[in-house]
Amino acid sequence: FTLVDPLTSPGKGVHFSDVAGLKEAKQEVSEFVDYLKRPEHYKKLGAKVPKGALMLGPPGCGKTMLAKAVATESNVPFLSMNGSEFIEMIGGLGAARVRDLFREAKKRSPCIIYIDEIDAIGRKRSSGSGQFDGAVGEGEQTLNQLLVEMDGMVSKEGVLMLASTNRADVLDKALLRPGRFDRHILIDLPTLEERREIFEHHLRVIKLEQKPALYSSRMAFLTPGFSGADIANVCNEAALHAARDKHGTVTGADLEYAVERVVGGTEKRSQTMS
Ligand code: ATP
């Protein structure tokens, strides 16, 4: 797993202000910041705080950013792992990794555990989908271990579990039961206004011919269906294009060229995948 600890890398984290748009999702997760900052307050009132939340939505829309922002704003360590890292594990290694992750989290509590692409380990057991072909028992063992660890986690331990997926439909129901991932936060593709905000955010670091506000509305209009990651990519491609063409500032034409390029890349990706 990867660890970001505010003690060893201060000032490096993602903040809520770095996440453009996603107003409701931000509001929902900001409750967690309060739990992590003032656990005693909740305990005194006899409130059981949620152990975790599942963030649902298409890739590149800010799920990881938001999870990291909760850690930064709460000033707690962030332990993360990608579900796909468990897939090729054999001989009980996947389950052992889950155990290690939770053991480490307990040591560092209060902290956040984040599992990206949880569907890679959390698929329905014995669904016959053949996802763990050749290692059926292994995948189930890993998922079972995750469930055991989640159940063993008491809210007073101050370990918050966040996970993300874009395939909620394939998740094992056991993961979604009360006391496990019973809170769901939808993080969808950005709306027109959100795309404008994301453009403004990413254009800020680019040397533009004119002010970011003069480009962001038009760019948002030209990019329906783009994720935040696509938008970040457009801004960077535009800067690369300007650098290649050796002009001193990034222009509207560079940005429009970059949109075409990112659309082209996305189309190619989906052709190879289908
Ligand atoms: P995945 O499911 O593929 O892990 P994700 O939803 O976790 O995707 P992130 O990793 O959070 O997506 O976002 C990828 C990148 O896209 C970010 O590093 C950032 O540059 C950009 N991005 C995505 N959403 C936003 C946003 N709301 N505001 C600003 N930047 C964004």
TrEMBL record:
Keyword check for Ribonucleoprotein, yes or no: no
Please list the residue ranges annotated as the AAA+ ATPase domain: 49-191
Keywords in alphabetical order, please.
ATP-binding, Hydrolase, Membrane, Metal-binding, Metalloprotease, Nucleotide-binding, Protease, Transit peptide, Transmembrane, Transmembrane helix, Zinc
Q: Which GO terms describe its molecular function?
A: ATP binding; ATP hydrolysis activity; ATP-dependent peptidase activity; metalloendopeptidase activity; zinc ion binding
Report whether DNA-binding shows up as a keyword of the record: no
Which Gene Ontology BP annotations are present? mitochondrial protein processing
Q: What is this protein called?
A: AAA+ ATPase domain-containing protein
